[in-house]
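Provenance

Sequences were taken from public entries as deposited. Structures were produced by running a predictor on each sequence independently, with no templates supplied. The record for Anti-sigma factor antagonist from Nonomuraea fuscirosea is shown for reference.
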Amino acid sequence: MMSAGETPAPAPLRLTSSTAGDIAVITVEGVLDATTRQQFADHLDQAGTSIILDLAGAVFMDSRALGLIIHHWQASQAAGGKFALIGVDYRRAKIMWITGLAKVLPLYDDLDAALAALA
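Predicted structure for Anti-sigma factor antagonist:
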């Protein structure tokens, strides 16, 4: 039990995958930071070149995670794949707005909007 004034430990990272046609849909739940970077990188590496990354469950994202996302977005484009981010929330992913990448990355509200845009 926590005492008054203590904050709960950050949620561990949980990554799940499904598919929508030929596109891997990766759902992120938890923290994307230095402690979960390798787990996130390994999961993205296994996803292929067409990815929709659902960040609605991400409670925090640091610049390392954003770097991985940029890397996979660029690799997807170079390989002729498809890439989209959904469920991105400013409060939990401020780094995208601070860096200006929210204006560049393919952001969509939900899976249906992303699939329609990628069709």
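The mean pLDDT is 90.
The longest strand covers residues 51-61.
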